[in-house]
Write a structure and sequence with these properties.
Layout (H helix, E strand, L loop, with lengths): L8 H66 L10 H9 L18
Helix pairs in contact: 1-2
Length: about 110
């Protein structure tokens, strides 16, 4: 049944383990490279998407401020009496991306 290994069979067993080791190493390298490529692509896509979402968020906040001021002006009230501008613009100005906000009248002069 089981016979002892002879001198001729010993190199075949060593060769089989060597091939297995080479295949395992190759599969590990391919798996690691695939994972690194996936991380690289997802990082780039995340940066691109986050930038666009951030811009859209800032534009939405600006539209809220613009709509509120326009509603105030449509009622015929002077803009200098609008007391809520500081509290309305505070969430936008608290971020790092916006330093100041200015309101212009129809003559393009700052108020």
């Amino acid at each position: 049944m089981d016979r002892p290994h002879t001198g001729e069979e010993a190199p075949k067993i060593g060769l089989a383990w060597g091939r297995r080791l080479i295949h395992a190493t190759t599969m590990f390298v391919v798996t690691a490279l695939s994972l690194l490529l996936l991380l690289y692509v997802s990082h780039g896509d995340g940066k691109r998407t986050y930038g666009q979402l951030h811009i859209e968020k800032m534009m939405a906040h600006g539209l809220v401020v613009q709509t509120t001021i326009e509603n105030f002006l449509r009622e015929g009230l002077p803009l200098k009496q609008y007391a809520g501008f500081a509290t309305l613009a505070a969430p936008m100005l608290d971020g790092e991306d916006l330093d100041a906000m200015t309101v212009y009248d129809q003559k393009v002069s700052s108020l």
